[in-house]
Design brief:
- The protein is α/β, with parallel strands linked by helices and 505 residues long.
- The chain has three domains: 17-121 and 301-307, ATPase, nucleotide binding domain (Nucleotidyltransferase, domain 5, 2-Layer Sandwich); 138-296, Exopolyphosphatase. Domain 2 (Nucleotidyltransferase, domain 5), CATH 3.30.420; 315-454, Hypothetical protein af1432.
- Helices cover 47% and strands 17% of the residues.
- The chain has helices spanning 64-81, 95-99, 104-114, 123-135, 175-182, 190-214, 224-232, 234-237, 244-257, 267-286, 299-309, 316-327, 332-346, 359-368, 381-391, 399-410, 426-445, 471-476, 478-492; strands at residues 17-23, 28-36, 39-48, 89-93, 119-120, 144-150, 155-161, 164-171, 218-222, 241-243, 291-294, 457-461, 464-470, 497-503.
- Strand 2 (28-36) and strand 3 form a beta hairpin.
- It starts with 16 loop residues before the first strand and ends with a strand.
């Protein structure tokens, strides 16, 4: 998936300002920029060390204290977002929110406080955004770079050239979670430092061989943890790099004394630096690094570029859909027919908004991928398609978008039941079903895998949907008409009234 440099954009934005909010496991970050032709100027930054990962309890739920800290932070952020169009603001949650259970109510409160939808993203997507932010902040010289980002709940590893990531992984080890796991009871001493180090080495075993085989020319570190470690060894390394020798000495000093060399670092950052140091030393040893260059840009910058790209022809999600079409050998001509008809139907009705999802875009992508499961089996291929889209790493898509996309593909044929969509609340389901209706009708109208010679008309009146086609066309397509008439019963099972009528030419 190309991650191209931002070129001059012809799109007229409602405002020149864009914002990115990163709800990280350790810190919440907000970045506000102004688009100035083909450059971005940073206008404002804000960071709160919420450490939401500390609020993850044994049963996977978030503590009340962690929720309160998060809501308070987002309420403060919201003040700076008031004059920026919501479409030009992106907010994402990472490892801690991915891992937390039963967060629906909390996310509703968080979105209400912030004023915009919050997407929970996968580790793969987190790594992609980290690399995008990095690659837009450095000089690209076609060299192969390793980028490492140690967060509060996970650590991302990306190998790429220029703007293109080639290898991405996210491991479940972070400075906050490791602090809780290894230093909460026993404090910082040689034994607990060793346990944290060995645990990190164990996690790295899963990627060590493939990364060493891939290779790189230079290694770069992002995130606040790595910058803070660079500050601690600045006396020896200057602050712009971290060498293996200096890192090993820092690790030994922390292990022996239980303290950092100096305390010119915020208290909350100090608390997680022993764990961060143990993780980074494991990375150095397992990936055979001699030094690490410190980078300034990370996920939030990547989120800015990704958002701007969505207003142009650089939407990463469109690249992902094209890649899936090629990977699963989808009949693109048929996909385009279904997509164009589905969008044509959708534009004739008014549906309820779906928070955080563009219904027109998600419908088009679902139409383009509705046969993705055919490569596995023709029998129940809609179920295979659901599994592929629900569980694959889809660049650019948040977890909720991916969930809606997968359910559209699963629901595009055969019987319907509300049990299939039990993860949706009533408001989401009410917005989802008209979109699904347009996809189902489009796939039926193109069963012969050929272009339509007529224009189908879809009308909605008080919740009742009526599809009309010319009588002459209906007479020539009795099998399609029979299938359309069956849709009345199918949609009746999910409390949607639908009928098909043939009208005089």
């Amino acid at each position: 998936m190309p991650t191209e440099p931002m070129t001059e954009l012809k799109t007229q934005f409602e405002s020149p300002y864009f914002a990115a909010i990163d709800l990280g496991s350790n810190s919440f970050h907000m970045l506000i920029v102004r688009l100035n032709e083909d450059q971005i100027d940073i206008i404002d930054r804000e960071k709160d060390m919420v450490q939401i990962a500390r609020g993850l309890q044994k049963d996977g739920s978030l503590s009340a204290e962690a929720k309160e800290r998060a809501i308070a932070s987002l309420t403060r952020f919201a003040e700076r977002l008031r004059d920026i169009p919501s479409a030009q603001i992106r907010a994402v949650g990472t490892k801690a929110l991915r891992a937390a259970r039963d967060t629906k109510e909390f996310l509703k409160q968080a979105e209400a406080a912030l004023g915009v939808p919050i997407q929970i993203i996968s580790g793969y997507e987190e790594a992609r955004l980290v690399y995008s932010g990095f690659s837009h902040s450095v000089s690209n010289d076609h060299s192969r770079r390793l980028v490492i980002d140690i967060g509060g709940g996970s650590t991302e590893f990306i190998v790429g050239v220029d703007y293109e990531p080639a290898l991405m992984e996210s491991l479940g080890m972070g400075c906050v979670t490791f602090s809780e796991n290894f230093f909460f009871d026993g404090g910082v001493n040689p034994k607990t430092m060793r346990k944290a180090y060995l645990a990190a080495c164990s996690r790295l075993e899963s990627i060590r061989k493939i990364y060493l085989k891939s290779g790189w020319d230079t290694a770069h570190g992002t995130s606040g943890t790595i910058k803070a470690i660079a500050d601690l060894v600045a006396g020896a390394d200057g602050g712009a790099i971290i060498t293996r020798d200096s890192l090993e000495k820092l690790y030994e000093s922390i292990a022996q004394t239980g303290e950092l060399p100096h305390n010119d670092i915020p208290k909350l950052r100090q608390d997680v630096l022993p764990a961060g140091t143990a993780i980074l030393l494991a990375v150095f040893h397992q990936l055979q690094l001699e030094q690490l260059r410190v980078a300034n840009a990370t996920l939030k910058e990547g989120l800015i570029y990704d958002t701007i790209g969505r207003f142009s022809n650089h939407d990463s999600r469109s690249y992902t859909v094209k890649k899936l079409q090629a990977q699963y050998q989808i009949d693109e001509a048929q996909a385009d027919r279904v997509a164009n008809t589905a969008i044509g139907l959708w534009l004739q009705i008014e549906g309820l908004p779906m928070r955080g999802v563009s219904r027109t875009k998600i419908l088009r992508w679902a139409a383009m991928l509705h046969e993705v499961g055919l490569s596995i089996s023709h029998t129940s291929f809609h179920h295979h398609g659901y599994y592929i889209l629900r569980h694959s790493d889809l660049a650019g898509f948040g977890r909720y978008e991916q969930y809606i996309l997968a359910n559209l593909v699963r629901g595009h044929r055969r019987k319907l039941s509300t049990n299939r969509f039990d993860g949706m609340d009533d408001a989401t389901l009410a917005a989802f079903l008209p979109v699904l209706l347009c996809l189902r009708l489009a796939t039926l109208l193109h069963r012969r895998r050929e272009d339509l010679t007529v224009t189908p008309r879809l009308r909605e009146n008080n919740g009742r949907y009526t599809l009309s086609l010319p009588q002459e066309w209906a007479a020539e397509h009795p099998l399609t008409v029979s299938s359309l008439e069956h849709e009345r019963a199918y949609f009746g099972a999910v409390d949607i009234q639908f009928e098909f009528v043939a009208v005089a030419n």
